Amino acid sequence: MRLALPRWAGPLAVKAAAFIIVMCCALAALLGVLVHVSVTDQTVGQARGLALSRLAEATQDYEAGDTLMPSAGVDPSGLPAPLRALAAAGGRGTMVSVYQGRPTMWAAGPVAGHRAVAVAVDYSQQSRTIAGLDKSILWSSVLAIGATVLVGVFGVTRVTRRLHGTALVARRISGGDLDARVDDPRTKDPSRPQDEVAAVAVALDTMASTLQSKLLSEQRFTADVAHELRTPLTGLHAAAELLPPGRPTELVRDRVAALRTLTEDLLEISRLDTGREKLDLDTEELGALARRVVRASGTDTEVRVLTDARVETDRRRLERVLGNLVANAHKHGGSPVVVTVNGAMVTVRDHGGGYPEYLVAHGPQRFRTEGGATGHGLGLTIALGQAEVLGAKLFFANAIDGGAVATLVLPVVDRR
Using CB atoms within 10 A as the burial measure, which of 10, 80, 114, 294 is most buried? Predict the structure, then answer.
């Protein structure tokens, strides 16, 4: 089973913690080895010096014919074989071994007749000292590693939390929330040190502010242009109505009507962009509303109600969404066009060439049309914006057997 990590504990935090642990273990191991070697050499050196000094005394006593000290003897039974061989060959040396169940430091040297005189020095105290030292090194290393890891992980997680918060703000901005800001406290207090995370936060906040101001300027420009166009277009429409009947008059009236529709669409998009649209909620029967939209469109559209549902919605906005979807299906798709109501889900399907790939992947884009399509390309954009205001979800896809499918999912009234 894979260990679940907190959302802020990403790969960076795990890698940093692993690096700290490895470095702490390596440092503790290096220091422990150095201390162990140094103390062991000192302890063994002292024991070896004592054993050699007693060996010198025992050798003098043996050569003088005096009685040897209790810890000395000639060719004693416990003398290690390598040390016995060294003494028989005329050399002197020391060696640690276990004698009578206790650690013993042996010192041996040659005497006449290729024999070895040896001295045994109790090495138990020194052995316990080294063992205690090793144990102390181990426990102190564990405590030091634990404390260092805790401090290191605390420091790393503070950084990763800040990075995670910055990433969340970036996702909110990419999702359309241009008011989102990191507001890192370090960026507001000049006395506090500015680190790289604070620099990223400042850059993100600056980018969001610049982007927001540019978008607001574009929205104001679009709204102002559309608003200013309404007055001359109203006059142009009135003038077109006074023209004598004929084909040129029909063309002029058609173009004037298209300009008026485009202007109203631009104004509607400007209102949607502000994000301050208010809903006029009421409970509606979805099947009846779909039939009403189709009748108002004046198109040959089939309505299928599989399962009706009551939804709490803004009737005008929902009719606008469905009307735009039906109009787009007839204008850019192919017959037959079918509107299907299944609970709180409404699908509008045509049997034409389907949506362009960019629209399925990224949603409708303003004024973008492909494949010889005509029109100003704002109908689906308005439908998507109004659906978001309604709290609904609008999806665009292509049917396997051909045709475009728009799916609108509405929130259902809670009957409890």
Answer: 294
Cβ burial, residue 408 (10 Å; 0-12/13-18/19+)? buried
Q: Could you identify the residue written with the tokens 């359309």? A: 176
- pLDDT of 288 strictly over 50: yes
Contact 403, 350 (CB under 8 A): yes
Do 103 and 127 contact (CB within 8 A), yes or no?
Answer: yes
Q: Whole-angstrom Cα distance, residue 80 to residue 71?
A: 15
CA distances from 275 to 13, 18, 56, 270, 366 (A): 38, 46, 101, 9, 17
For CA atoms 321, 324, 326, 332, the dihedral sign is negative
Q: Are 86 and 134 within 8 A, CB to CB? A: no
Residues 6+ apart with CB under 8 A from 209: 181
Tabulate helix, strand, coil % of the chain (nearest 5): 55, 15, 25
pLDDT, tens digit, 9 for 90 and up, residues 225-263:
767 777 777 777 777 777 788 788 778 777 777 777 777
- Nearest by Cα to 314 from 269, 277, 272, 279: 279
Residue carrying the six token digits 């003398």: 79
Q: What are phi and psi of 156, to 5 degrees?
A: -70, -45
Q: Is residue 282 within 8 Å of 413, Cβ to Cβ? A: no
Question: What ranges make up the beta strands (E) of 81-228?
Answer: 93-99, 102-111, 115-122
Structure tokens at 324: 């735009």
CA gap 334, 58 in Å, rounded? 117
Read off the pLDDT of residues 58-115 as tens digits, 9 standing for 90 and up.
Answer: 888 887 777 778 888 888 888 888 888 888 888 888 888 888 888 888 888 888 767 8
Interatomic CA distance for residues 307 and 3, integer angstroms: 44
Write the CB contacts of 76 (distance below 8 Å, at least 6 apart in sequence).
118, 120
Rounded Cα distance, 201 and 183, in Å = 7
